[in-house]
């Protein structure tokens, strides 16, 4: 057990009691499609910032592991590339997304390219954003807390993270994310304050950490850092950003909310990166760095503060699982079932989405158990999704360089197949030794190249009237 203090356990039970109360309060309440999927398009600026910040920072144990191993490089790998992606979204997409007043990314694809690209987009969104990595993290955290096997803990993680949004949809996600946002920051601020008070500041870290922990690459090859700057382009097609933009009260809130969120992520990355570096300094021989945050809390924090820090980790992960779980559910409910049934009545979309919620939770849990590596899941899924969606979405929203429906579908299918093949190839034996990427090329590079080739061919042929 993570603690013997009734106070720590009381905080955990109070949190889950709050989520149960949210679920009970909305039990049996009906919602329209616009209320259920995009919170009535009335999300205010503070709520927008809280829900986006909390949603996009679910990888807390992965961040702890990377900071423990590589120090400040964590900021250059899981921070800066994504700030750049978010900034590009704010500048080019946020206002346009809100003005479009759609529900989902496949809605955008259908408006500009037709039904087949929309369904391909729905398939890609579901595969790429069902929250498998975060379910794995929460399950790992539960397994550490209760000393239980991983598989049932992963199943429990999926269940506990989505049950309370079943009735209220995105409105419930936004409301609970605001509470989780506060817990995230409170827990890590308290942790870092205890660490500095007990051990000292930067001087302590400099004397207890390898020099590589203060290098931008953390001792890794530059190419291993650089690839994340391409994977971070997934921000431009991240349905969490699009859903929040669709739900904002007005286009100005959509743009300003993303910009303010970047500032919040910078602060939180400071807290988590330095906490991970303290973990390496305090516990230099930790057998499993993925548990660096929990183990550091165990040896550092008194009762009460320990419970708060665990709540911070739980809230950070759950805020991402519920958001992406709901996105995957909406993909099934609106973008697959409703679109395939050609149902003219949107009133049934919430019911379809509620069904999709449990399908998404089951799929995420199964994928998490199958591939038990958070960073691999981030890397592989980001590498597949980004090349598939980047150009079709960008050209649709910006109104430049659009292809016809057939070429757009080809420009989605080809990079999806190419990057999937690249990912699979790494796990296959090659000439008697462990497999690797073909020609040592990262899958996202292969996928982006394939996307560009198909787009170029389509553009030339359509221009010549040959398509």
UniProtKB/TrEMBL annotation:
Keywords, alphabetical: Membrane, Transmembrane, Transmembrane helix, Transport
InterPro entries: Na/Glc_symporter_sf, Na/solute_symporter, Sodium:Solute_Symporter
Transmembrane segments: 6-24, 45-63, 75-95, 116-138, 144-167, 179-199, 219-237, 258-279, 308-330, 351-369, 381-398, 405-424, 444-461
Presence of keyword Lyase: no
Gene Ontology molecular function: transmembrane transporter activity
UniProt entry tagged with the keyword 4Fe-4S: no
Superkingdom, natural source: Bacteria
GO (cellular component) term, any one: plasma membrane
Places the protein is found: Membrane
Entry membrane topology: Multi-pass membrane protein
Record-linked Pfam families: SSF
Family the UniProt entry places it in: Belongs to the sodium:solute symporter (SSF) (TC 2.A.21) family.
Full protein name: Sodium:solute symporter family protein
